[in-house]
Fold these 4 entries.
Entry 1:
Amino acid sequence: MPVKNRFAELLPEITAWRRDFHAHPELLFDVHRTAARVAELCRAFGCDEVVEGVGRTGVVAVIRGRSDRSGRAIGLRADMDALPIVEQTGRDYASKSPGRMHACGHDGHTAMLLGAAKYLAETRNFDGRVVLLFQPAEEGGGGGREMVEAGALERWNVSEVYGMHNQPGLPVGHFAIRPGPLMAAADQFEIRVTGKGGHAAKPHETVDPMVISAQIILGLQTIASRIVDPLKQVVVSVCTITSDSPAHNVIPQVVVMKGTVRSFDKAVRALAEEKVKAIVSGIAGTFGASGEVIWHPGYPATVNAAENTGFALEVARGIAGEAAVIDDIAPQMGAEDFSYMLEARPGAYIFVGNGETASVHHPAYDFDDDAIPFGASWFAGMVEARLPAG
């Protein structure tokens, strides 16, 4: 099952869709143009059902196979939203929307799934139904959660679900995956330390929240180094620190810090939240200040089911060959809201090579259109492998 010849024929057309999406990036749930174009194309392909507005602005398209003896439905998901980044690629199809850019390749994911949709609607060489899930707001909005809560999996009786992301640094034509945790849970926190401000020349008359905050930042590092089992990964990062001080010689009254916690294990995730709050309260109280933590739960960990990872591997190896497929890539501390779908249904998430380009979320990132036949072949191949016609 190598790259399907049909996708070589369709490559110029799929590339044109991808570059159109790239030139017109949209953020979070405000993907109205993209979603409308996706729905228009799915109807033109002859999809049996196309429903818009699922999970606010998501699109679901259904293709029935030549038969439905199995009664099963396989879900395939692609994300549609872009990022608030100023593009620096210089491409002739670069973003026409200032301050917005497809810097994560979601335009490529959407185009590859559309290519697979066109092929599957033409051939229908499977027994059952494929449910195409075009999702908004992956970049921080939780569109995957919205689609699950809107009943996208229950309404169309999806029994297993698969997704894909491009991977800069992995050669085009290669795939990478692993069973179990693949991407981390991502929580955010805001810490507010309130002391007693004053003149910088009289620190003894103050309760300096800057010094206290420095102690808190150091204390938080013990969560990874001394509290959590060293064989279980966790990252605690304080990324911003601001104060209400108006000048270089004024000790502030309030300091605010913001950061993130990344983890894979649910127990570690809960422990990290508990210890962040305890460390902030304890250190602040020791110095006579108050410390408040506002916790923002983020995406859960993306966890591939072992059996479904095996199915995904088999299809990837059939397309790219054994040597071009990594079956135990190291887990990544980035987060992905396909995790909500994997919590609701068994399935797997795989990386497809994007070659030597800038990393995702970088203004010079560039999706490699040569990856399209591989990604589209994998999407289509998952359907034909999991819903065999014969």
Entry 2:
Amino acid sequence: MTISVESTAREQAAAVRRREISARELLDLHLARIGERNPQLNAIVSLDEERARAGAAAADEALVSADRGGADVGPLHGLPFAFKDTHAVAGWRTTYGSPLYADHVPETDELIVERVRRAGVVVIGKTNVPEFAAGSHTFNPVFGTTLNPVDPTRSAGGSSGGAACALAAGMVPLADGSDMGGSLRNPASFCGVVGLRPSLGRVPEWPLYNQWETTSVGGPMARNVGDLALLLSVLAGPDPRAPQALGDPGSTFAPPLSGTLAGLRVAVSADLGGAFEVDHEVAAVVESSAAVFEAAGARVAADHPVLTEADDTFRTLRAWHLHAKLGPLLAAHPGALKASLADNIRLGEDLTGADVARAYTQRTALSERMREFFSPEGQGYDLLVLPVSQVPPFPADQEYPTSINGRPMQTYLDWMLAAYLITVTGCPAISVPFGHNADGLPVGLQLVAAHGRDRFLLETAAALEAR
């Protein structure tokens, strides 16, 4: 097999292990693609070719040493990798998309980075993000705007927009990200790749300013579900520094995947019973999935859980989180943050203990309602199918869509409801490419399963992908 940047991550890693291609050669292929596409798309930032070449040489030498000692190398050995620019990488510029951190170089890796590095990747740089990962459109004053690889006049989504764009354009074989209100799922949908928001606790994070704040999670992105499972197998698993980490080892999620759609009970809803406005073409793509599931032997119903409190819950916890984390920074530099982010931070100033308590009480009720929705003793569904994003990729010169189907969006969060209403349930959700609108722009399908059923979700997504 001839390896190219379009080969799967599994094929690339296997070829390196079998000496069919060296890490140096694989890096050269990806650097050539980056040189070809990144000047227009602006997905990879802080690229350091010299350090990447040194890393590739070290990876090749490590493979020789492993052979001599009869040892094995990590599952991602030799793969070029660019970390999301909100993830601290020791010795590498990490800006968070903010001019205040334009020259920031961390001294230690955060846990996600530590695990990916240990798996053998060759670090090449970072992937672009919106300022402090706030908002589902990737632009910032440090590096500018990331464009959609399918149509460069459009948004690549966010906040993991650089990661999704780089994947879709063949600049990297795998990517990491994080997701609070859809930051792994939305850019995956916009760019036509796969993004997983794992169950709470599945991918532990450290260090955090608050280990008990659980709206944001780290997770994997890839061009296909099997590759995503490979990266999840590296990211997942307990760690003593993360007290809420689930106990399943990462190997639980490793490929191959062997799921089926036959016999599943599937609920399909384009708008959660009118909970949000959704573009008519996006809704049509979601609704068309019912026939696909039925043809594969699933039992499909037009149904959904009642998530009435989810909007207030998310907005309250998001404002509380942003104010706690970034409030002091805003106070010290009142004009240095984008207006939409500054406004959301300030929303946290007026929150009371009763507000936060209400949000957590509601979140508990939402979690219980989802448990019943997926429980054999309740509604008994295996899968919930929704839009990932309520709109197709919008023009890149807009901060966010101002209307959907002619209906005005009051805030820069309103068009993200389809993703963030699921956030506060704690359930795993995956974005899988499923169709296109009339302009040929990608539309992803959001599959949601019960908390803890990440392996089932991967297998189901793989079965849908193979349809």
Entry 3:
Amino acid sequence: MSRSPAAEADGGRHGAAIEDLDVVQLATLGLGNRSYLITDGTVAVAVDPQRDIERITAVLDSRAWRLGAVVETHVHNDYVTGGLELARRLDAVYVVPAGPELGFDAVRAGDGDEIPVGKLRIRVIATPGHTDHHLAYAFTLDGGAPRLVCTGGSVLYGTTGRTDLMGAELAEPLARRQYRSARHLAEVLSDDTVVLPTHGFGSFCAAATAGAVERSTIGRERAANPVFTLDEDAFVAGALSGLEPYPAYYHRMATINATGPTPVADLGAPRSAGLTELATRIAANEWVVDVRPRADFAHTHLRGTVNIDARGAFATYLGWLVPFGTPLTLLATDAEQLEAARKELLRIGFDHPVAVATGNPLEWAGPRWLTSYPRTDFTTLAAALAGRPMEILDVRSGGEWRRGHLPGARHIPLPELPHALPTLPDAEIWVHCHSGFRAAIAASLLAAAGRQVVLIDDAFEHARPLGR
């Protein structure tokens, strides 16, 4: 099996050959997802495409492939699909699982169906669990044995998809269906069948942390994945006990996808804001988000703004913190940085920022609005502990906290911080997370609320001298 180097900044494309099938993987690191193009060399099938479909059309154009079909493993809960727009633009068949009501026409697929696309034959296998309508697609060439299966959010690498996204009351019955679905999949496919999931690469759609592998097979999962190694009750208990909260914007994604997303081409460009408007929006306590690197923001920023570094899981945390439909203004260094942030937000349905601005803080609002806060590391924290009063704030997840934390630290997971601000003492707050990304968001929220803050921009592994 050959592999080409990564070719895109947000996760890259990887090409691989599985016998006579060509596979192009399109990764979206910020959301922890992957989409795929699978082809017989002439006609291609897109699997679970995301909304920025130009990534797919670029591959098709570069390789002179025709798009024959777009298939969805489920109505996604964590991003806005590009499937409908892609199929319409390229006149391809659009396949969506039977079950959910849709606001558009599509081919509705169910267990046992076969979809011909060029020399490809796609075998549809029902795999309910992650959702009640979930499907897997096994690909064969000219009617041979399946060589790969796209498992969407069902069987992931070393884990399975979470089962609570359709409602907490369905989590246990869907976990039991997940268990049986996975085992059925392994019964009808050979151990050497390559497994290609959509989720599990940092996505909150995974029930637990996925295995750190680039490619897996049914046989490998059968040997290592808890859905195969545990009995049903033990699997269900483990799957449900390990669930962390998921981003708030997830509640909107399935509705958008089932209704039919607005084509990106139909969305207008955001309007540029001047100094007076920015000042007015900040004074009104609107969300004015600066997407520059966290070190730059800490050094100089506009008082009252929030920092979410566009180089990390930008969309995930903005969509978690900013209520859907509230006014959002974006600040960026230049048009390239702004466009990257806008693309991330389009993937989760934040289509209409009320305003944008590019440049630097001095240009945006003038010197009287400028402020900063210290940025440091755990070594400095250790030295400062004995000599000054402070509050240590840990904004990691509950699971991270339980695996180890600093003595005397206060734990508030980042998504809960905006509502918990009034509970914090009137003290200097030193804030940390696992790597510095979430802590930087928290520090900016604290500073915008008028708190005295120090950002610990350091890896938590360096906190060992403080005792955990």
Entry 4:
Amino acid sequence: MKKNIDARGMGCPKPVIMTTKGLDSLEEGSITTIVDNEIAKENISKLASSKGYDFSVEEKDGDFYISISKDGSEPVKVKDNKKLKDMTIGFSSDTMGSGDEVLGKILMKSFIYTVSETEPYPSTLIFYNAGVRLTVEGSEVLDDLKALEKEGVEIISCGTCLDFLELKDKLKIGSISNMYTIYEKLKDKESNLIIG
């Protein structure tokens, strides 16, 4: 069975949600999602890759056609990393707590250092709103985040937040993601922690 999903003109996370629903309703076959922007193309490609599906991307007249094949078998699962705990930490700010901003930055730096030095590590760190400032050029915690990424910790930053704060070109660690992925990461973990 073949399905086409036209998600042109739609903002994050609608193209990913439409593609996910299409894949869920399909036992075997392929889906082609059409989008008109680079971010949606990347987000759908990451979705297909994370699920273990074969996919291809073709550009035509400024639109992207992402074709995803589903053969009916179970997607490939990633090998367990014993150093990681099934836990997500979300960072909504570049400071910890409210009150004094200088103190908040000191506390955040100390918290991320502690995370980088304590096993098991969380499997995912999510940065959104002002928290994305921790993953860009000039951040004082980049070395600690790089050490965590080297250990297998997934680091993702909200693409909408990076765009809004005009920081997308300054991202130095991890990958850009979307609200659908952020929600999936937060809802499917044993335990979660939100810092901000």
